[in-house]
Design a protein that fits this description.
The protein is an alpha/beta fold and 306 residues long. The protein has 8 helices and 14 strands. Helix content is 22%, strand content 24%. It is globular, with a radius of gyration of 19 Å. Helix 5 links the parallel strand 3 and strand 4. The strands form 3 sheets. Strands 4-3-2-1-13-14 form a 6-stranded mixed β-sheet. It has a 6-stranded mixed β-sheet with strand order 6-7-9-10-12-11, covered by helices on one side. The protein starts with a helix and ends with a strand. It has a single domain, classed as Purple Acid Phosphatase, chain A, domain 2.
Length: 306
């Protein structure tokens, strides 16, 4: 089942309407076909934005906020059988909620919304190592990272490398990578955390998930940034270096994409990359349809206003 299950056709609009992909006709979904639809929802750089933006005449007035996001997520879950909810980091910092509660409220609210996993952004160190450790019991979901070595810190064995989810018989491997902290975060806040090359770490983990652990689909939660004008490592460079990553959900640069983009990997195959700005103003959604015994690679998405 390893090779056949990995084959897939996919796609969608925010309303959940299936469209044709390549030579795969829409009517096939009404026939007796063995397929599984996975809906991936995601956020990034929410930055402690619990309430909507104030009604002050600003361009974002009334938008965002946990209540609206939670309602939208609940509506989608009611309509879809297999849903993953993920976050690409910078959960903390940006409103007084973090200053007063140190991240406790953010973790509790994400747990209430039933996030499945998140990665660590640079601002998630703003309360220091002890501050982040203190909030972990409030998170009913794992924090994932493969390129920060926490072995000489209080977070040793508290952060997972990856998580595998089974949705309708489809195995989805999810892992996280983070940006270099030196020069971005004060040393006293991240302590003895060792930064390892995110490209090598990501590709090693993706290979493990695809080839040793038999995952059908591999998702990277990246807090590297979408793209830079210099040689700094980004989602673009990660995609180009990869061969086993199917989807990169990014953060850090607060990039508002209208929909996901496709970038070629090291084998010339498509890697899907998406990012939904900041402050919870958008909820990213990708519907991925896996059909056994058939091949195809094309995903579109719609990033919905909250």
């Amino acid at each position: 089942m390893k090779t056949n299950r990995r084959s897939f056709l996919r796609t969608v609009s925010a309303g959940g309407l299936l469209v044709t992909v390549g030579n795969f006709p829409l009517h096939a979904f009404t026939d007796d076909v063995d397929f599984v639809k996975l809906t991936v929802l995601h956020t990034n750089d929410v930055h402690s934005r619990v309430d909507p933006f104030p009604m002050d005449g600003g361009r974002n007035e009334g938008r965002g906020g946990v209540a609206k996001r939670a309602a939208l997520i609940s509506k989608i879950r009611a309509a879809e059988e297999h849903v993953l909810l993920l976050d690409a980091g910078d959960i903390f910092q940006g409103t007084p909620y973090f200053n007063f509660y140190g991240g406790e409220l953010e973790m509790k609210l994400m747990s209430a919304m039933k996030y499945d996993a998140a990665t660590i952004g640079n601002h998630d160190f703003d309360g220091g190592m002890d501050g982040l450790l203190k909030q972990l019991p409030h998170a009913n979901f794992p924090l994932l990272n493969v390129n920060y070595d926490f072995s000489d810190t209080v977070l040793d064995k508290k952060i997972e490398a990856y998580k595998i989810f089974n949705k309708g018989g489809i195995k989805i491997g999810v892992f996280g990578v983070g940006i270099e902290l030196d020069g971005l975060v004060p040393k006293k806040l991240y302590g003895n955390t060792i930064y390892n090359d995110p490209l090598a770490s990501a590709n090693k983990t993706a290979w493990l998930l695809k080839n040793e652990l038999d995952c059908d689909y591999v998702i990277c939660l990246s807090h590297l940034g979408f793209k830079y004008e210099n040689s700094k490592i980004s989602d673009h460079t990660l995609a180009a270096s990869s061969s086993d990553i199917d989807l990169i959900l990014g953060g850090h640069t607060h990039t508002f994409l209208r929909e996901a983009i496709k970038l070629p990997n090291a084998l010339g195959e498509d890697v899907i990359v998406n990012q939904v700005g900041w402050a919870g103003l958008l909820l990213g959604r990708l519907d991925i349809v896996f059909e056994r015994n058939r091949k195809g690679k094309c995903t579109t998405c719609t990033n919905t206003k909250v």
